[in-house]
From TrEMBL:
Protein name: DNA-binding response regulator
Keyword Transcription regulation: yes
Protein species of origin: Arcobacter ellisii
An example molecular function term from Gene Ontology annotations: transcription cis-regulatory region binding
Residue ranges of domain OmpR/PhoB-type in the record: 125-225
Phosphoprotein found in the keyword field: yes
Boundaries of every Response regulatory domain copy: 3-116
Pfam families cross-referenced by the UniProt entry: Response_reg, Trans_reg_C
Residues within the DNA-binding region(s): 125-225
Length: 225
C-alpha cells in the first residue's frame, strides 16, 4: 500500500481525496497543522507528500523547504495560488510537481504513481555506499559485505521490507500488510517471530547480541546498519 501524508487545512477537500485515493490502494493521512505534519514525518514513514501552500501558522513554501532539507521524499504541491512565482519557487526548492486547484482527483492519482515510479527507479539506480547489507530487488538477493545470504521466500520478503525502511520501526501489521506471502495464519501461530529469529541467525555476527535487527517491545521491529 502507498502511504501518503497530506498537509491540507481544507478538511472537506482532504476527506474527498482520502476516500477517492483509497480505492487505488493509497492510504492518506491528513494533517491540518503544518507543525504537526513535520513532527509526524520524523516518526512515520510516508512514500509521498501532498502539500497545500496556504496553511495556518506556517506558509506552505516554508513547509516545503523544511521537508526538502530534512527528508528524502517526493512532494506534490496542491494549491489554489495562481501566482507563477509560487510555482517556480516551489519547484526550485525541490518539489516534484505543482497541481493547481481545482483539479480532478483522477489526475492526482496518476501524478502520484508517475512520481513514485520515477522516484523509486532513481533510488534503485543509486549505488549504496558503505552499506553492510545490499538489497537487489530485481535479482531477489540480499548480500552482507558482498556475500549472498541464503533466505527463504518469506525471510527475503520480511528482511527486504526492513532494509527498505531502515531506521524506522515496522509493526507486525505493516509487515503483513506489505506481504504477498505472509497471512493471518502466520500471525496467529507466531510464525513471524520464528522467521525473525531465523533471519537473525543468518545476518547477525552473534544471534544473542543483536546488532542489526532489533525488537522494539510493543511496537515491532527496526533494522539498523
Amino acid at each position: 500500500m502507498i502511504k501518503i501524508a497530506m498537509i491540507e487545512d481544507d478538511l472537506e477537500l482532504a476527506s474527498v481525496l482520502c476516500q477517492y485515493l483509497k480505492q487505488f490502494n493509497i492510504e492518506v493521512t491528513n494533517y491540518e497543522e503544518p507543525y504537526l505534519a513535520l513532527s509526524a514525518l520524523k516518526v512515520n514513514k510516508y512514500d509521498l507528500i501532498i502539500l497545500d501552500l496556504t496553511l495556518p501558522g506556517m506558509d506552505g513554501l516554508d513547509v516545503c523547504k523544511a521537508i526538502v532539507k530534512d527528508f528524502d521524499i517526493p512532494i506534490i504541491i496542491s494549491s489554489a495560488r495562481s501566482d507563477i512565482t509560487d510555482k517556480v519557487t516551489a519547484l526550485k526548492m525541490g518539489a516534484d510537481d505543482y497541481l493547481p486547484k481545482p483539479y480532478d482527483p483522477r489526475e492526482l492519482e496518476v501524478r502520484i504513481k508517475t512520481i513514485l515510479r520515477r522516484f523509486n527507479h532513481s533510488n534503485a539506480q543509486e549505488e549504496p555506499k558503505n552499506k553492510t547489507f545490499v538489497l537487489d530487488e530485481k535479482k531477489k538477493e540480499i548480500t552482507k559485505n558482498g556475500k549472498y545470504i541464503k533466505l527463504t521466500a518469506a525471510e527475503f520478503e520480511v528482511l527486504s521490507l526492513l532494509i527498505k525502511r531502515e531506521g524506522f520501526v515496522i509493526s507486525r501489521e505493516d509487515i503483513f500488510e506489505n506481504s504477498d506471502i505472509l497471512n493471518q495464519d502466520y500471525e496467529s501461530s507466531g510464525s513471524l517471530a520464528v522467521i525473525i529469529n531465523r533471519i537473525r541467525h543468518k545476518i547477525e555476527d552473534d544471534s544473542k547480541e543483536t546488532q542489526y535487527l532489533h525488537t522494539i517491545r510493543g511496537m515491532g521491529y527496526k533494522f539498523i546498519q
